[in-house]
Amino acid sequence: MSDEPGLALPAYFSYYRSPVKMVATAEGGLTAWRLSIDTGGWEPVTHLADEILFAIGGEVSVLTADQFVQRTEHDRGRYLEGEGPVFALYETVQAIEDSAAAERRHLTAREQALISGIRRRTFVMFEEELQRAGDPGADPTIADSQA
């Protein structure tokens, strides 16, 4: 499957508004992972790879690494609940967004930059915790990719 012309791995997608990443395997193939909104971890969805790759447009779109990180953290912050530093940062983002909404205005450039920075940070923190817990799809280094 990774022999598809023009497919560079890792690759990032939005599949029906859900973040999906495709990564190379040691054997030269690929593995696909979709964010679980129940756990914040990664579900294997390699069976969807062809559908995603050949259905780009409509409900499937290509994301940059940073767009993938931002979408992932948006969803984690929206759907997950918990305690600790990551969740405190999710609450900070929510408070910034709620304040702008209450004032019926768009986020300022400074607020947007702050939220993006927080989400890159929470992505790394969450992914590192997933790695410690043994999630094979976790990869905190994606946040370092500013593609």
TrEMBL record:
Protein origin, superkingdom: Bacteria
Protein name: Uncharacterized protein
